Amino acid sequence: MNEVVIVSPQELHNLIQNKLEKAGLKSEHADEVARHLVFADSCGIHSHGAVRVDYYAERIAKRGVTIDPEMYFEKTGPCTGIFHGDNGIGQYVANEALKYAMEMAKENGVAIVGISKLSHSGTMAYYMEKVAANNLIGLSVCQSDPMVVPFGGREPYYGTNPIGFGAPASEGRAIVFDMATSVQAWGKILDARSKNMEIPDTWAVDRKGVPTTNPHDVGALLPIAGPKGYGLMMIVDILSGVMLGLPFGGHVSSMYDKLDKGRDLGHTFIIIDPSRFMNLNEFKENITRTKDELHNIPAAEGFKQVYYPGEVSQLTYEKYQKEGIPIEKGIYEYLISDIVHYNKFGGQSAFASKK
Fold first, then answer.
1. What residues are annotated to the active site?
2. Cα 35 from Cα 224, distance rounded (Å)
3. Cα–Cα distance list, 294 to 66, 276, 282, 285, 298 (Å)
């Protein structure tokens, strides 16, 4: 494994923000992206943390991200709306859209807000933590570029199309769950590349459709649970792409191909106010009870205990916030350098390899 550097959350935030501002991003937007990426690294989701900065900086510098986007919210019904992102940096755009979604849910009990045209919006857990902190239930879905073979196929059609969920509890951390509908998110492959580590042969296939353990040979990812994951990918794509009149499925833009063009991605928030269905305190107590009952289930052989979905990331967050965040030395050296980006991603395939 490559050498790591332990960095405080504040130092990492400052380094990321500084790098993105040097690339041309507005301070307010860079601050939000840095907050998001530090959250991901703190949770141990290094695939969506500082490893992304070089790519973001290159796309920003080449104006594939709108530096000063003309964003606006279009209310389409009492409980529905579209936030137009003008291909601004994804984390900032999605965070602004979420504010409207939560406000609408508190007013009407439920909200469905689609985000039209934004760049890569990061980890779903970040948004769902905010939803749960506001005593709301959230579901977050977003599309991504074709990287996953459909069940029974050899060529990619859908993206990793992640799903996030959040719900408040009466004590301790909320339940927040975030997953790709592929066996692993593409960022996990990037993380393995940065560490020069092999990947399990159940994650991906090479360009001939043969399972591979070499992260550099990946030609497509695999859906979780075969046809079930394939079906979930389709649902995510319909809710965040087709429904918003955006490119969908195999038509979604590549993350790396044209770095001087906006990606026109879609993202959808579905927010529910649980107090419209039952007493809020009782709801939160039942979520806490769920967590406790899961903890009390006897652990299977080879396991320490049963964790509720998302709990391991939460425990990692608490640990890294206190002790510092481990960052690959090469990534850290890039962040502290005067280099804005390495000019390495443009013109690559979805799998960050030259076409």
1. 120
2. 29
3. 45, 26, 18, 14, 9
